[in-house]
Amino acid sequence: MRQVGYLALTGLYALANNIERLAEDHRRAKEIGAILSTKSWIASVEPVETNILIFSLAEGYSDTLLIEKLKQKNILISSLGHNKLRIVTHLDYKEVMHTYVMEIFSKI
Questions:
Q1: pLDDT digits (tens, 9 = 90+) for 54-103
Q2: Which of 59, 69, 51, 79 lies closest to 107, judged by CA?
């Protein structure tokens, strides 16, 4: 039962200390989505309601290649399969990182 208490405590801490800054994560995800939605190599960007951004690549583009290209620039994203990708903004994703990511996506 100690694990349950530990998990409950971390959840309570997050609610007490981080709930207000979630708006920053949501804003950042929306900003990335706005840039991606202008790119010809993006088929679609799902509506961004939280800090999770899901998008699909246009036909003929490789999710594996994009992931590798971004990884070389120290940007890590996840594949959901079938050319669908996911980006998550979070507590450790700082504004300076966001500026860098926005710049990279603008240039691709």
A1: 999 999 999 999 999 999 999 999 999 999 999 999 989 999 999 999 99
A2: 69
Q: What is the pLDDT of residues 19-65, one digit of tens each?
A: 888 899 999 999 999 999 999 999 999 999 999 999 999 999 999 99
Domain positions in the chain are 21-107
Residue 7 has pLDDT above 90, yes or no: no
CATH of domain 21-107: 3.90.1150.10
Q: How far is it, in rounded angstroms, from Cα 62 to Cα 77?
A: 14
CA–CA gap between residue 26 and residue 49 (Å, rounded): 7
Integer Cα distance of 5 and 31 in angstroms: 36
- Give the separation between CA 67 and CA 62, rounded to whole angstroms: 9
Distance CA 29, CA 87 (A): 8
